[in-house]
Amino acid sequence: MKANAAIFYASDGYAPAVKGINGRRVAGESFLKGYLRHGAVEEFVILAKANSEAAEVETLVQALRPDKKLRPVGLARPGSIAPLTNLFYPAANIAGEAWRRADYGSDAWAVCGITHTTSTMGIMQGFFDLRMAPVMEWDAVICTSTAVQAAVSVQMDLIDAHVRQRFRAAPPPRPMFPVIPLGIHCDDFVPDPVARQSLRDRLGCGAEDVVFTTIARLTPHEKFDPLPIYLAMQAAQDGLKPGQKLHVVFCGLFRHAYAKTVFVEGAARLMPDVGFLLLDGALAEDRRAALSAADVFLFMIDNIQETFGLAPLEGMAAGLPLLVSDWDGMKDTVTPDVGFRVRTRMLGPHHLANEALRLQGGVDDYSQYCAAVSAMTEVDVRDMTRQILLFAQNPDLRRRMGQAAQAKARAVYDWAVVIPQFQELWGEQDAKRRAAGDAAVRIAGHALPIAPSPTLLFQGYPTETANFADARFVASDLTGRTGLRDLLALRNYQALNRHFATTDQIAAVLAVITARGANSTGVEVISGATRFQPMYVERVLIWLLKYDFIRHA
Questions:
Q1: Is the per-residue pLDDT at 210 higher than 70?
Q2: Which fold has domain 186-412?
Q3: Rounded distance, CA 303 to CA 259, Å?
Q4: pTM of the predicted model, to two decimals?
């Protein structure tokens, strides 16, 4: 059963051009465009914090699906996603969205998250928080590969074992953890013959030369160590016949000067006989040229920061065979018909327990943690060398695998194929939610254990708690005093971009009380006259009392 879902939208999760290029944002942007292109829906609904962010999505809708309406919903009123009963959140930790839902009841809608990097302290703590939050069995966190699903399962088992030991009780039912891959828009990666020839001329490629291309963030401590690649490339070059040359093209971004030094000096010293070129991953034309000029897509990841590997799909869509590490999502995507996977090895759990504790305790930062794990992760250089030679010496093999890769990309990983899997999952979640019976729970919004109302939490601070149920008010004599609007301008709540009520709303409440003259009035009368909810009227009343615009009768 296919279902629509409201999309939680914040620029940070979907806008790499604005917020900076990283895998999470690139994947988020690709998903959003894929959903707008291929979602089988009557309307698109987003849950967003700001009108400016809603406008970003509206621009995309007009460009990709102008026949469909976009309905924005504010974060303060998530129940307004109705009649939709699913919410997609672009990260793994859906605990916050479960708490946001709590006041409506845990069966009001189902929440669906998705994994990206799972190795940060924030995400690992987030998975623990998820087990403590009102996350239900009809909620889901999409795992983008079987490797990620296995990693999440390990942590869930550890958390649940702690719950049993600590609380001597059974842990709550887990959310769903289905495997659905990320996708791409295959048409974006059709190779450009002109760009191919231009870059190969720049490299000085001969007719039989072979170009291996990587598109990735160029950080040896958080993505991949290039030095084993250089060792394997030079060894393979030594095994080729005279006149044939290998070339390595890296297209990406450097975060630190240190990283660039590792890549550039490492290439010069470790593979002096192999061609080498760096391209700018921020430039679309460089990314297209890198794919177009390549003979093989290379993705030799040795880092736990990686979880899926979106770039190899782009290489597949460009018709390239793949040479990758046998690592995380590539175990799913790179099958023997489309490429080779190079053996990898890690040490046993007890070897790196200290690294985990150093991260948790703040002794090491995330980069240091990833670098330490990478340093003790082997990518088999001899195996890589053999497979480089196989590709270099067999153009028919490259062509056959490249054709199979391109066909597989369209058949399995194009968003046209992947988006229906998301919608089918949402339909399954909805069916589970509706069949839940009395399993649902509701927690009043003022009593969330992680964020109780401050006037509940700090009720012992004031002299008394205001009770306006039977209270009546009259306007104060404002002769010679600063008026309401001038005082609000002086106080300048807008400086923090947050106000408890607008100036016009406050003025409307004061006007009702002032119009009554000496006759006092209460909350119900004010509510009826302004059409504001009684609770909202009370928020304004206490402010008017604070600044002596009104007084108790």
A1: yes
A2: Rossmann fold (3.40.50)
A3: 15
A4: 0.90
